[in-house]
Structures are given as C-alpha cells and as structure tokens.
Design a protein that fits this description.
With 184 residues, the chain is α+β, with helices and mostly antiparallel strands. The chain has one domain: 3-Layer(aba) Sandwich (Aminopeptidase). 28% of the residues lie in helices and 29% in strands. The strands form three sheets. Strands 1, 2, 5, 6 and 7 form a five-stranded antiparallel β-sheet that branches. Strand 9 and strand 10 form a beta hairpin. The longest helix has 19 residues. The model has no long low-confidence stretch (mean pLDDT 94). Pfam families: Acetyltransf_3 (PF13302). It comes from Rubrivivax rivuli. One of its GO terms (molecular function) is acyltransferase activity, transferring groups other than amino-acyl groups.
Length: 184
Amino acid sequence: MQLVRPAPEHLAGYCEALSRGWSPNTTRPEAAQEQLADIAADAAAFLAVTHDPEALGPPVKLPDGSQVQRLPGIVRWMWSDEGFCGSINLRWPRDLGPMPPHVLGHIGYAVVPWQQRRGHATQALAQLLPLARGFGLREVELTTDVDNAPSQRVITANGGELLERFTKPEAFGGGPGLRFVIRL
C-alpha cells in the first residue's frame, strides 16, 4: 500500500468507492454524495482542494451543517495493487498552534470496508507522519471514539500516546472521545 496524491488517474477508483457507500468523512456519511456531485461538476477543482497547504479552498461543512474557514491541509489516497483502499488527511492551523475547537485532530483517515483489517490505515499513518513533519508540525493529535479499538491500535502502533478522554463538540454529536498525540 502506498499513499498517492489525488490525481485524475485515480478518480475512477475513488468515485467507485463513494458510489458503493463509503465516505471519507466518518462523521458525515452524506459527504460521499456531495463529493460525487463536486467531481461531476468540476473534477479539477475537487482535486485542487485535496492539496491545499495555503487554505485557499472553500469553507468546510461540519457534521451539524455549519461552515467554518478551511485550515491548510492535504489529502492522500491509500492505493494498493487492488486499487483504492481509503483516504487520510492532514490539517493544521496556519500558526502551527493548537487546533481550533471545531477540529477533532490533525489527522483523519478512513479505509473502505472491503480493504479493512489489512494494515492499510497503520501504513498510511506511518507514511503521512514525515509529511506532517515537513510542514513544520512537531506533534499531531488524533481522536477516536472510545469504542473504536481498531483505530486506537492504528494510532498506538505509530507511537500515539493517550492524552485524555474528552467530550466531542456538539457539532460532532457530543459524546465521549479519546485524544492521542504522536510526537514527530
């Protein structure tokens, strides 16, 4: 498995996953249909936003429907000999300070169901960490649900340390979460 920068030659595999009901946004499943519509309307613009370290793209929609200013960030797609496996993204504040309260962490990832339990998320996170360091980050925070043991294993396999139990913001449905840190 390798990470690839989203590009036109990868769109068919990505769109197939979206069409099969997978969403890159674990808190907004409807993002899959929104992304399919965005790709159909302007694939080049969609791809441009996947590599946006200057935060020039449009606002981001939160799970509650509200919109917030985009943070600098990048998206990489997990790709294997079998094709598209999932996505992982990195975002950070312009000043490299603390994340704003409406952002759950620096990194988010999602693997398509038919490629899960193959180590793709663990490998993707390991490959993304040097990119985070390259953008000047000294540590990254990741969050997960308290009952998401697979995600917790991905994070700890990459050096993640549990920072705290916390209550997710209402925009993300509230409820308990776990916050981890990986020092770079």
